[in-house]
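User: I've been going back and forth on whether these two constructs are worth ordering. Before I decide, could you fold them both?

Assistant: Sure. I'll take them in the order you sent them. The first construct and its structure tokens:
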Amino acid sequence: MTRLNLLNKCTDGMEVDCPPEDSIVSFDEDCVELGGVKDMRLEAEAVVNDVLFAVAEMHVSQSLNNASDVAYINVETREGNRYCLELTEAGLRVVGYAFDQVDEDLSTQYHETVYSLLDTLSPRYREAFGNALLQRLERLKQNGQ
């Protein structure tokens, strides 16, 4: 999907699952493949870069064992809640309620995108996302596009 098509999709019906910034990334197009498998460490860095504007803190875990098939991301929402996220081919899910914490007994829903996951966790993320989208649309309007 092209960046323009993705932006049009975002503005048609204001879908919350779309990135509002110029950093629109298609993970399928931009990922690095190793033997047909996405490298989740690189995917995790792309995820962090996409939504850093709308959270208090977010980084790829340095203490958990990241690999080509799984990566862990620590995120603190604007509300001050901390989570450890797991990124795999299945998607993203919460695996802990503190940085670098994995609770093996925790069974949480997978989300296809980081936008969807953060939308469920953080009302202030949703607000920041909406504000960023409005600013982007205003810039496009001012540039006559």
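The second construct, handled the same way:
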Amino acid sequence: MIVVSSCLAGLAVRYNESHCLDTRIRQLIDEGKAISVCPELLGGFSTPREPAEMIGGDGMDVLDGTARVVTKSGEDVTEGYVKGAYLTLKKVKELHATAVVLKEYSPSCGSTWIYNGEFKGKKIKGNGVTAALLGRNGIKVISEERLAEGLNKLI
């Protein structure tokens, strides 16, 4: 069993009520080989919601308390992102998932790249809060951008 970002499964859970359907992931869900999770919804956020980015570092820094997640208007929403990350970790452990496929660039799910905190579309190397927490707990995290390379190994 693998866990995947809900937006990749075609669910309109992103901040702007959109999705990022990946037909391979949707097929895995339809075949019962994957379960979808949205850390941001688990953290108490609604759809739609104001975009958020990390200030002062990446997901590792947020978990260490040295960076925070803020909305475009400046509201600190760090607590919700951390809560969603821990609830996602709990679900992954309950399912005994072998890997988690996450949506790149998200302040929750980015596993290689995130936005730089200026809300201007600039990306930097780093990971989201959920990706960081899963990695710290030995869970294999894969970006949807690298899914084609390892899909057969996951299932």
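Notes on the second construct follow. The first helix runs from residue 23 to 30. The radius of gyration is 14 Å.
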